[in-house]
Amino acid sequence: MGDVKKKENKKVTSIAWRINLARVWQMCGNYFAMDMMVCLMLFAVFVYGTDVQQLGSFSMDYSRKLVSGRTLKELVYFVYASDSRLLYRIPVGIWLYYFRIAGIIVLLVQLLNIFSILRTGTKQVRKELKPLDEIADKARELKNLVSDENKYRSLEDAIANLKVETMESGVHTNDRELQGIENALNDLLERIRTSYRQQTQFVSDASHELRTPIAVIQGYVNMLDRWGKEDETVLNEAIAAIQNESSHMQKLVEQLLFLARSDSDRQSLDMKQLDLGDILKEIFEESRMIDETHVYTLQKRGTAPVTGDFDMLKQSVRILVDNAAKYTAEGEEIILRVGMTEEGASYYEIQDNGIGMSQQDLERAFDRFYRADAVRSGSTGGTGLGLAIARWITGKHGGRYEIISMEGLGSRFHVEFPGIMKHNII
Prior knowledge:
The protein is α+β, with helices and mostly antiparallel strands. The protein has helices at residues 2-55, 93-147, 149-160, 179-228, 232-263, 276-290, 310-326, 359-363, 373-376, 386-396, and strands at 63-67, 76-80, 86-91, 272-275, 295-301, 305-308, 333-340, 346-352, 400-406, 410-417.
């Protein structure tokens, strides 16, 4: 095994050296192209600039000549008109002399950089190839694991003998080398079991909730068939009941579809910069207009900026306000507060003087289809899904809930975006 590892290391080093050498050659080519481009640009600027400076304009018709002396410093640049008449002459030797010195300095810097890459680049490439080495090592480990036929068959038999009724016991081969795979499989099985139980409970609760309005509608349809054709009182009563139950069932189905899209992560959000105060103000004005049986109060404490979906956040606030109105007696006050905490978190609160909640109700307030015993048989018309939807919306915006409630005194829902609650978080 050690010899194989050494051979692999030598092979990787050879590959790294070739990659680094190719990089150095590419750098040499880039430097050469860049130097030539700079020289051409400087020559073009010199020719054009001297013509404009000496003659006021540039022309391609002029003939140009460089005449050298005994040394580079005596080099002279001549420009002639088309009739061979001398237009001007400029000594350029001194400039070329200093330009040559600057070019030598630049060339030395480039060579030093190339030698530095040539000397240390292989090590850098080895470092960059390290993740590939690790993948290769893992592949060899898996190869050795798979090559052990007994272990492979032991794991295969454990999975094949796994039964639905005994799935909670998990997969066990009693092989320490397979312990990691066993733990991963058992964790996956546990998540599958949890998801299956949640889906089964959700379907069961949804079927139970839909059964009641369907039964009521069927009962009134049968009553209409028997007596409604002749008795106007029965007809009106049946139509009103069917309309009410149909509306309730439509609301329930819409909420179920919302939660189904949420669970499958298909509920899109239009995130923008907004102020919670604008949302609370709209809810406040709408509530006063459609509900004249309660006293609504809005308390704004500065701005409350958040990044979120305006419609979704408004829906979550509306759910809490409607929930407060359902369980608060007529004539009582419902308070809407919005502002920022001392730590800079935006928040809003919905407070009522309703029937309140027990500790058991607080713990299950956001469970789907859960309704407290005190209101389960009442006429509130709730589906038990509103708070679950509100919690999902708030969670998607990074918010958290805090509920303070006492039976007979009322409840206060406090929501922060984001923030750490000072009380127990539900």
